[in-house]
Amino acid sequence: MPDASRPLGNLIFRTLNTDGRRHPLQNVLSVVTIACGLIAFVAGLFPAAHAIAAWLGVLGFVGGLYSQYVSATTPERALNIVGIVASFVGVAFGIYHGGFFP
Q1: Where is the chain membrane-spanning (predicted)?
Q2: Spatial distance between the Cα atoms of 69 and 10, rounded to a whole number of angstroms
């Protein structure tokens, strides 16, 4: 079991590199996209966090589109799409609950 001693971060980036080459920029962009999307989605469920949801949703959406443009492997693209959709829903909830400013 050689992978048991590796940190979790290496396993995540290893599964995104299915072509055998390293893509550090694309991997980081994909992970940031999914993180922004999930945070925006969860924050969008709470009306008091509408500004966080709106701004992180826009950041995740625009960053996800760029990440999708420069992505190199299929798992990166799949992560980008999930992050982009979550960001869009998060920004929609954020705008519905009050917009970009508190």
Answers
A1: 28-46, 52-71, 78-96
A2: 23
What's the number of domains the chain is made of?
A: 1
4-7: long-range pairs with CB below 8 Å, 24+: none
Q: Which domain holds residue 38?
A: 22-97
| Residue 56 Cα distances to 27, 62, 79, angstroms | 19, 10, 17
Q: What is the mean pLDDT of residues 29-49?
A: 96
Q: Percent of the chain, pLDDT > 70?
A: 86
- Residue 23 in contact with residue 76, Cβ under 8 Å? yes
Domain assignment present for 8: no
